[in-house]
UniProtKB/TrEMBL annotation:
Residues 48-75, 99-133 form a coiled coil. NCBIfam families: VPA1267_fam (NF040697). This is Uncharacterized protein. Keywords: Coiled coil. InterPro entries: VPA1267-like.
Length: 145
């Protein structure tokens, strides 16, 4: 079994080989939101999307490739807002964890509510059936057959 560095090197070699075999037309088909579709690249290379994000060598090569494609006008150029967003560090949202927990709890409560409403409807049908039976017994004084 290969260690992380060996598999990372193998993934880089696979990516570089894939990059060489592509044409401008295939790159154009892979454009998604102004960049190359990471899922398509990972599938074509035979490794996970995490390799594209976590392997610094692949990440650098992919950025170089995208910059080169922008120069050749295959990819759209980066807007100032996007460049600024990439440079600026992402702010940590402290409420995100709480929001996730609240959403999970809300989903659970909604499911429980649906189940309880179904149970209430079933019990109301049974009550209606037995209340009619009780009315008949009250009027006749005996049980109908």
């Amino acid at each position: 079994m290969a260690n992380g560095q060996q598999s990372g090197k193998e993934n880089l070699d696979t990516f570089l080989l894939w990059k060489i075999t592509q044409t401008d037309d295939t790159y154009k088909e892979m454009v998604y939101r102004g960049q190359l579709n990471r899922s398509d690249i990972a599938i074509a290379c035979g490794f996970g999307k995490s390799a594209l994000r976590q392997n610094p060598a692949i990440k650098d090569e992919l950025e170089k490739l995208e910059d080169e494609l922008r120069e050749r006008e295959i990819l759209p150029s980066k807007s100032e807002e996007r460049i600024e967003k990439e440079i600026r560090p992402k702010e940590f949202d402290q409420s995100a964890t709480g929001n996730t927990l609240n959403k999970r709890r809300l989903s659970k409560l909604e499911q429980e509510n649906i189940e309880l409403q179904a149970k209430v409807r079933e019990l109301e049908r049974k009550l209606e059936k037995y209340s009619e039976l009780g009315d008949v017994i009250g009027e006749l004084g005996m049980m109908p057959r």
